[in-house]
């Protein structure tokens, strides 16, 4: 029974309950609008800190993925160039073997030599144009194919430059090689056969390196996906549960308003004590 008009304990208690209901409703509405149960440190400081750290790792893995993609593209260009060089060497060998025939007349030998020179020069053009994103991995003095492989950039993987230039360490056929005589043709055949073996080894190096890059990218993508799922488990709201909670909060808030109205009317009952 209220016996004071200065202090209405029931009203104060009802107001506290209503404030709690409204706060819960606000929190629930925020979860529904954002889809998250933890939107900032005030919701759950420890969980928010963990989620932010994990988000940083996901971002780092994304940067690593970009680096791996660039490296894979560079490796693809280098591999394509190596295959083209190998094909050209096979064609050059065919011309050189034909030129070893001692019975060739001068006109035929000159025609073979002209075709040989054209194919030879194509190797130089292919090698020179085999650049991606500023890296040419098959040119003399070109760069290695490199990529970061983890989320903080502390680990890297690289494929060494494979010099496929004419007269280089792998393609031993000289840039001015000719098959103008049977002897020159014999020398060219020997150089071409050695070059074919070297180019095959270079292609194997590029191919195995590219496979390593691809496997790393696939692993990092799986790791990123798993981490994102973990972040979701930490901060995402269960919207089914949240919807039920919103309905309950709405009822509690309405009941709180009714209870507060009743409590606010109770002091007026003291007037009955003074009625005659």
SSE order: HHHEEEEHH
Q: Largest beta sheet, briefly?
A: 2 strands, antiparallel
Structural class: mainly alpha
The average pLDDT score comes to 85
Helix count from the secondary structure assignment: 5
Q: Based on Cα principal axes, name the global outline.
A: rod-shaped
Strand order of the largest sheet: 1-2
Instruction: Using the CA coordinates, give the radius of gyration.
Output: 39 Å
Description:
Helix content is 67%, strand content 4%. It is mostly helical and 276 residues long. Helix 2 (45-99) runs antiparallel to helix 3.
Key attributes of the depicted protein:
4% strand; two-stranded antiparallel sheet; single chain; rod-shaped; 276 residues; mainly alpha
Write the layout of secondary structure elements.
Blueprint: H1 9-34, H2 45-99, H3 106-129, E1 131-132, E2 135-136, E3 145-148, E4 156-159, H4 182-235, H5 239-265
Antiparallel strand pairs: 1-2, 3-4
Helix pairs in contact: 1-5, 2-3, 2-4
Please outline what is shown here:
The protein is mostly helical. Helices cover 67% and strands 4% of the residues. The chain has helices at 9-34, 45-99, 106-129, 182-235, 239-265; strands at 131-132, 135-136, 145-148, 156-159.
